[in-house]
Amino acid sequence: MYGLLLLIPFLLIRFGLLSYLNKSAVQRAAHFAPMYGNEKIPYWIYQISNVGIVIYVLFATVKMEYSWLFVLGLICYLLGLLLCAISIVNFSSPSDVGMNTNGIYRFSRNPMYVSYFVCFMGMAALTQSLILLGIVVVFQISAHWIILSEERWCLETFGLPYAQYMKKVRRYL
Which of 4, 131, 132, 154 could share a disulfide with 124, CB 3.0–4.6 Å? Predict the structure, then answer.
């Protein structure tokens, strides 16, 4: 099976579902917090690794064999898609001030990033690619720095309510 078939559901959920539910949420999801100083380097690494994942998976082949790696990959991939869909549904309905704190956002401040990581790890296992695994690890490390800048921006934008939210809800899981 071609890796392209792994990307189609991911892209349909990530962009299609969000656009269907709330067109203005697409702009919010595409917004990156302002980057200062050393934050710009992880931003570009994040963007390049994103492109790298998509291009690599486009040309990869899924190893269709019954093995523990295939089963683990399939579970991660499907769980990642499910988490992404739930995150998108919850993200499309922010509070009046623009914060997302309901649904899955009660358990994780960054469920979309978590879902991407789980889904991409599933893709790496399904394609049995150490190269893709390496790109996903770079992606996740750089995403952490993006998240830190987003949290700074959220504190500046939402103030005390976001600070209280940070105390109650973990960054990832």
Answer: 132
Across the chain, the runs of DSSP E, i.e. the strands, are: none
**Is 102 exposed, middle or buried (CB count within 10 Å of its CB: 0-12, 13-18, 19+)?**
exposed
| Nearest alpha carbon to residue 109 among 149, 82, 147, 161 | 147
| 13 DSSP assignment | I
| Number of other residues whose CB lies within 10 A of the CB of residue 99 | 15
Q: Facing residues of 61 across strands? A: 2
- Residues 146 and 164: their CA atoms lie apart, in Å, by 21
Spatial distance between the Cα atoms of 96 and 112, rounded to a whole number of angstroms: 21
Helical (H) or strand (E) element with 31: none
pTM across the whole model: 0.93
> Angle at Cα 96 formed by Cα 94 and Cα 101, nearest 5°?
40
Q: Is a pLDDT exceeding 90 seen at residue 38?
A: no
